[in-house]
Amino acid sequence: MDLGELRDLLMRHARPDATTAIDGVLVSRVERAAPPSPAMSGTVMALIAQGAKRIALGDRVYEYRAGQYLVASVDMPITGHFTEAAPERPAIGFGLILHPATVAELLLQAAPGDLPPAGSGAPSGMAVSDAPGALVDAVVRLLRLLDQPRDMAVLAPLIKREILWRLITGEQGAVVRQLGLADSSLTHIARAVRWIRDHYAQPFRVEDVAQLSGMSVSAFYRNFQAVTAMSPIQFQKQIRLQEARLLLATHPGDVTGVGHRVGYDSPSQFSREYRRQFGAPPSQDAARLRGSAPGTAPALV
């Protein structure tokens, strides 16, 4: 597969904030391999044109490199970094934010037999595959529109739908299709994920969140683990610690207060779990974060 034109387009249109003039389309350029850092994945498809990246989700590790794409169908706490990036050969990638409503619309328009049969249970919320030529071609045509502003408003939505269709019918289609199915296991788990993210600072009973998701406790726990590679309590802890890190970037002198705001009653427990997660105690990490607060954009691109 020739990725030459894709690399050229990405290099030309990369911005520091990764955004482009096309809504939902991201372009990244990273010139140095950095230590792993925590972030939220976003619901996104990320295609690498040069370089390589490693993502850890719970106890799972995903690696993708030039010519491969990763799909995340749930916004999850991850740790990741580019493993191949240098000023003379930067890592460059394309991202497309995935919206459940658009996936649902395409699924409704598909003719009977156009889609592979659905599997049982919830697929993992993240998957990696080699990018087929048709998918890369569609991405290239979409990026060309950045040089053709007159055509962008009309053609960009059409090509984004084509890319999404390639994903829905591709090797990882099950992961993407469940994003648009109102009654899919992944949709139920995504509802629980949103609830935990919105209420991360308060304790909860797994039984209550399972009921909110419309599942038995055993089915909820099994599907939550399949999608996120974490238990619900582990997921909550990841969100608490990431939120604490964001707060410490702007309030470096209030470690105890930050710990309490994200749900820790014990300062020693907060410090212990923070150090285990980020490799340094809160006060030391806060000093390191000054002037370089963690970003909130999808972290897979």
From TrEMBL:
<keyword id="KW-0805">Transcription regulation</keyword>
<feature type="region of interest" description="Disordered">
    <location>
        <begin position="280"/>
        <end position="301"/>
    </location>
</feature>
<dbReference type="InterPro" id="IPR009057">
    <property type="entry name" value="Homeodomain-like_sf"/>
</dbReference>
<protein>
    <submittedName>
        <fullName>AraC family transcriptional regulator N-terminal domain-containing protein</fullName>
    </submittedName>
</protein>
<dbReference type="InterPro" id="IPR018060">
    <property type="entry name" value="HTH_AraC"/>
</dbReference>
<dbReference type="Pfam" id="PF06719">
    <property type="entry name" value="AraC_N"/>
</dbReference>
<feature type="domain" description="HTH araC/xylS-type">
    <location>
        <begin position="190"/>
        <end position="288"/>
    </location>
</feature>
<keyword id="KW-0238">DNA-binding</keyword>
<keyword id="KW-0804">Transcription</keyword>
<dbReference type="InterPro" id="IPR009594">
    <property type="entry name" value="Tscrpt_reg_HTH_AraC_N"/>
</dbReference>
<dbReference type="InterPro" id="IPR018062">
    <property type="entry name" value="HTH_AraC-typ_CS"/>
</dbReference>
<dbReference type="Pfam" id="PF12833">
    <property type="entry name" value="HTH_18"/>
</dbReference>
